[in-house]
């Protein structure tokens, strides 16, 4: 069976390369590999999210949900004094996130872990995610509800979702689940959504 970026253990050869990206005005060089999401460039959806939302400031505890090779997690840690939990089911992606955080000088504040590696009592001031829509609606909803329940009071979740992959219906669903959600940007076929604790 072909690898998916949400495969836990990619079976493909681990062929690595680097990609250049500019996030919040700063240049980055990320190591990527086969078997991870968007290995050839910073994917368009993530780029839209990071261009549409200003870099946060200060400290706190953030979650990068479905971190891939870690561009969001690394940028959040570089821009802030926050602790960032980078979560993915793909072990190769987590290895790359850890390596990229080290290269960016923020390895001490980026924790790249499997979902079960996040302490149960941890609460997040913000969630950032380009979620894995292709896992299917039922699994997506289950995943989002699990992590949204761990937002701290006053917390915010930022999502980027393709319009043709259900971005508008996800916005309505999030609001119906008790997480008021607004569309803050739309570009290149993607919706940027902001959900909050009600």
Strand order of the largest sheet: 5-4-3-6-7-9-8
Report the uncertain regions.
1-8
Q: What can be said about the biggest beta sheet?
A: 7 strands, mixed
Structural class: alpha/beta
Order of helices and strands: EEHEHEHEEHEHEE
Total count of helical runs of at least 4 residues: 5
Overall mean pLDDT stands at: 88
Strand content: 25-35%
Overall radius of gyration: 16 Å
Shape: globular
For the record, give the distance between the C-alpha atoms at the N and C termini, rounded to a whole number. Answer: 42 Å
Seen as an oligomer or otherwise, the chain set is single chain
GO molecular function, one term: methyltransferase activity
Keywords: Methyltransferase, Transferase
Domain Methyltransferase small: 28-194
GO biological process, one term: methylation
Architecture overview:
The chain has five helices and nine strands, in the order E-E-H-E-H-E-H-E-E-H-E-H-E-E. With 198 residues, the protein is an alpha/beta fold. A seven-stranded mixed sheet has the order 5-4-3-6-7-9-8, with helices on both faces. A two-stranded antiparallel sheet has the order 1-2. A hairpin with a 2-residue loop joins strand 8 (181-187) and strand 9 (190-196). The longest helix has 13 residues, at 91-103. The termini are far apart. The model is unreliable at 1-8 (pLDDT under 50).
């Amino acid at each position: 069976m072909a690898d998916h970026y949400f495969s836990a253990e990619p079976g493909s050869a681990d062929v690595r390369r680097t990609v250049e990206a500019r996030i919040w005005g700063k240049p980055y060089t990320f190591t990527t590999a086969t078997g991870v999401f968007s290995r050839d460039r910073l994917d368009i959806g993530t780029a839209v999210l990071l261009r549409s939302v200003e870099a946060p400031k200060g400290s706190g505890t953030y979650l990068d949900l479905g971190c891939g090779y870690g561009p969001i997690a690394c940028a959040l840690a570089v821009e802030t004094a926050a602790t960032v939990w980078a979560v993915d089911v793909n072990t190769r992606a987590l290895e790359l996130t850890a390596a990229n955080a080290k290269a960016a000088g923020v390895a001490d504040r980026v924790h790249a872990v499997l979902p079960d590696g996040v302490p149960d009592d941890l609460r997040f001031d913000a969630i950032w995610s380009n979620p894995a829509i292709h896992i299917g609606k039922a699994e997506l909803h289950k995943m989002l509800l699990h992590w949204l329940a761990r937002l701290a009071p006053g917390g915010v979740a930022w999502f980027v979702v393709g319009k043709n992959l259900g971005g508008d219906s996800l916005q309505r669903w999030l609001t119906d689940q008790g997480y008021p959600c607004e569309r803050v940007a739309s570009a290149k076929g993607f919706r940027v959504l902001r959900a909050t604790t009600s």
